Amino acid sequence: MSNDPSPSSASWTEDAESYLRIAGGLCDVSRLKTKDGWYWQLAAWALAIISLGRLPRRLFLQDYASVLGPIQAYPGQWDEIPRPLIAHEVRHTRQFLFAGWFVPILGWVGKRSRVWAGVLPVAFVYMLFPLPMFFAWGRFRLELDADSYSWRVSLDRGWMTAESVQARARQLGEAISSWAYLKAWPRSWAIAACERCAENVIRDWQRRQVGDIPRR
User: Fold this and answer.
1) Domain that holds residue 30
2) pTM of the model
């Protein structure tokens, strides 16, 4: 997921513990790292090649957060990490956890092995199902699931408003259908699905708000 941080000499790593508390409260196997490992460099090269240069290495490494199992990696030069983005990336870690159940033995001995066991199943669904580009339904659904989870958490915790969720839904649809996500899904379909999902999340949240009002 992308972010547009404001220029700053500070780094989120100076307050890494507070961000880890948020992530750990949503998924206890979460680990936060800077996005400077060799595997991120390799992924950046691969994506640049696959996209024929339309997804530059710099963009992937400096403007996007990424997840690998329990590791939620953010560019070290960001001055802060938006809380809704943390919830989005945590949801990806939870997707790895769920997928790990389908891996015999390794996925059944505990969370820390299960989250790593889920890497191959999630990678297959995210990158190849049913097609790597244009009709990558798995990538589209995993990203929409992560963002809709982020919307629910953010509305409940006051990190986002209903209006900002609606704006984010359209932004997500635009992003998923762009080269940033290797054109995972047709633009009009992606935007419509994201906006419809946002409406459902907002409606459910509003119902809960009404339910919290004491009856007289």
Assistant:
1) 1-90
2) 0.92
